[in-house]
């Protein structure tokens, strides 16, 4: 059986699939050619990440397709319900990338509180002529220890972020419509651990009391953070979005940054991907990455291996 990994796949997962008797195709097929490629090559399994969209047209056009797999958590690029109605298996890997996304959140947090995003732009330009001026400009850093981190969305990734925050000595508060409480186990290198119980609060309370806010929610029909929510926040709040584009009103965010309401933002996702707004890309108070939350070698290995195990189980045992 043939597997098309259209958005890439790790070497370890290719080995696992080949050992299970599958042929893995890693050719990158253009979106409009996906259905034709699947039918021409008799592909049974289509694996995607966030780039390839699997909508009704592809599902209807590919009667031989048996499995659609998403390497990662969110499946908003797949018409999941429709695919399942048509008898296809739709699988994902919700636990595989949590740690990687959580570490990127803290990369943006550390960057923001120490102005690294701006310093790394300006040091190459002015470091040799305006060293003392830059030193003064970036002298008012903030420690994360002792501050309150508000986590909006307290699923696997939100809880992974909470572990790291607790390890840093931060207070953690969280909001989630579906998760009412969670016990966060913080493990240490020597086998010791502590358990911390966190009871979620209303969104408004988290927004009001957090020094820093990070979002971990799926794609939404409307903004989670808009102008009203920004006004409720503390002055000099830091905001991180490594979840989905469109959950923060970017126009309102820029206004809040320009008015010094928001100290900095860290964005891995954008309303208009893959062409984010120039005002976002050029803003001196925004730390930027190009949707790479799950893009670590370790996460991609876990994602690929987990997908391979699910595929082998579904097709070999059916």
TrEMBL record:
Looking at the record's lineage, which domain of life comes first?
Answer: Bacteria
Q: Using the record's annotation, list all stretches that form the D-isomer specific 2-hydroxyacid dehydrogenase catalytic domain.
A: 6-317
- Keywords from the UniProt entry: NAD, Oxidoreductase
The UniProt record lists the D-isomer specific 2-hydroxyacid dehydrogenase NAD-binding domain at 107-293
Among InterPro entries, the record links this protein to: D-iso_2-hydroxyacid_DH_PdxB, D-isomer_2_OHA_DH_cat_dom, D-isomer_DH_NAD-bd, NAD(P)-bd_dom_sf
Q: Which CDD domains match?
A: PGDH_2
What SUPFAM superfamilies has UniProt attached to this entry? Formate/glycerate dehydrogenase catalytic domain-like, NAD(P)-binding Rossmann-fold domains
Q: Which Pfam families match?
A: 2-Hacid_dh (PF00389), 2-Hacid_dh_C (PF02826)
* Family label: Belongs to the D-isomer specific 2-hydroxyacid dehydrogenase family.
- Kindly provide the name given to this protein in its UniProt entry: D-2-hydroxyacid dehydrogenase
From what organism does this protein derive? Flavobacterium fragile
């Amino acid at each position: 059986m043939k597997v098309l990994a259209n958005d890439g796949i790790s070497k370890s997962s290719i080995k696992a699939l080949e050992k299970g008797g599958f042929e893995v195709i890693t050719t990158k097929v253009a979106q409009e050619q996906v259905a034709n490629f699947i039918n021409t090559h008799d592909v049974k399994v289509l694996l995607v990440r966030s780039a390839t969209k699997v909508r009704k047209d592809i599902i209807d056009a590919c009667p031989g397709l048996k499995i659609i797999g998403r390497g990662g958590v969110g499946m908003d690029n797949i018409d999941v319900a429709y695919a399942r109605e048509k008898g296809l298996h739709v699988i994902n890997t919700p636990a595989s990338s949590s740690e990687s996304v959580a570490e990127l959140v803290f990369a943006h947090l550390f960057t923001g509180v120490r102005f690294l995003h701006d310093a790394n732009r300006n040091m190459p330009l002015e470091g040799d002529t305006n060293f003392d001026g830059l030193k003064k400009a970036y002298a008012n850093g903030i420690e994360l220890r002792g501050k309150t981190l508000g986590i909006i969305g307290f699923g696997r990734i939100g809880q992974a972020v909470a572990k790291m925050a607790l390890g840093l000595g931060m207070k953690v508060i969280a909001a989630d419509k579906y998760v009412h409480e969670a016990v966060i186990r913080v493990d240490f290198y020597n086998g010791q651990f502590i358990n911390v119980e966190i009871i979620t609060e209303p969104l408004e309370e988290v927004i009001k009391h957090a020094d820093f806010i990070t979002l971990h929610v799926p794609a939404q029909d409307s903004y989670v953070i808009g102008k009203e929510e920004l006004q409720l926040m503390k002055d000099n709040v830091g905001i991180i979005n490594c979840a989905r584009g469109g959950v923060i009103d970017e126009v309102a965010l820029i206004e809040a940054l320009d008015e010094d309401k928001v100290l900095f933002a860290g964005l891995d996702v954008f309303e208009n991907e893959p062409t984010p707004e120039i005002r976002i890309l050029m803003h001196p108070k925004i730390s930027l990455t190009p949707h790479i939350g799950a893009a670590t070698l370790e996460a991609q290995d876990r994602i690929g291996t987990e997908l391979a195990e699910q595929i082998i189980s579904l097709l070999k045992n059916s």
